[in-house]
């Protein structure tokens, strides 16, 4: 039985004080539930929000991580810095990082490895563009992304990884993949994991869907057999919406 995981990705939203205020209102959402609740917040807010989450079952994540522990990488944040704050998760390879900040499959793989080495669980994002979906190359694209992201990752390490399928055309657009299409791609990802590792790992790895998930569609998405959770942008910024999402 895979534990459902609903993660809010705040992206570049909420100042530190706004974030702390918000977390005060949602920090009980991880109580009395089988759902794992995560908030992935801007780097500058991590420490304050970690303090606010003391005693809470809501987990904390960053939205990126650098693969080196230190060095001449102006503007970057290292795994040691994140580890000291005590985060649980790091989103890696989000399509916005790939699109605007030149993230590649190679850097995604390095970041996955460094996260695991520092006890931070990676949420690894993959997904196709609209053009690739229309050309029928979506599966090919996702297969390459998954295979490269997981290069050199051991069977044991797979239990610390969460995968997230986010079709780029569904992110922030209000367009959601139909729950059946999302499930089909996620089942395909599970098959890739099975091919690379084994059936047990493919049946235990958690795979989220992301892209315009809202209170109105979350139940249908979560009812799909292969979908274990949601990585949510816009709707994770509002208390009522986020509450409904984690109670799908
Ligand atoms: O990381 C979250 C995804 O990019 C989805 O964002 P969205 O829910 O605003 O479409």
TrEMBL record:
Pathway: Carbohydrate degradation; glycolysis; D-glyceraldehyde 3-phosphate from glycerone phosphate: step 1/1; Carbohydrate biosynthesis; gluconeogenesis
Signal peptide annotation: none
EC number: 5.3.1.1
GO molecular function terms listed in the Swiss-Prot or TrEMBL record: triose-phosphate isomerase activity
Reaction catalysed by this enzyme: D-glyceraldehyde 3-phosphate = dihydroxyacetone phosphate
Cross-referenced Pfam families: TIM
Protein location: Cytoplasm
Alphabetic keyword roster: Cytoplasm, Gluconeogenesis, Glycolysis, Isomerase
SUPFAM superfamilies with a match to the protein in the record: Triosephosphate isomerase (TIM) (SSF51351)
BP GO terms, sorted: gluconeogenesis; glyceraldehyde-3-phosphate biosynthetic process; glycerol catabolic process; glycolytic process
Gene Ontology CC annotations of this record: cytosol
Binding site for substrate: 9-11, 172, 212, 233-234
Active site residues per record: 94 (electrophile), 166 (proton acceptor)
Family that this chain belongs to: Belongs to the triosephosphate isomerase family.
PANTHER family, A to Z: TRIOSEPHOSPHATE ISOMERASE (PTHR21139:SF42)
Role, per record: Involved in the gluconeogenesis. Catalyzes stereospecifically the conversion of dihydroxyacetone phosphate (DHAP) to D-glyceraldehyde-3-phosphate (G3P).
Subunit structure: Homodimer.
NCBIfam families: tim
Protein name: Triosephosphate isomerase
Organism of this sequence: Senegalia massiliensis
Taxonomic path: Bacteria, Bacillati, Bacillota, Clostridia, Eubacteriales
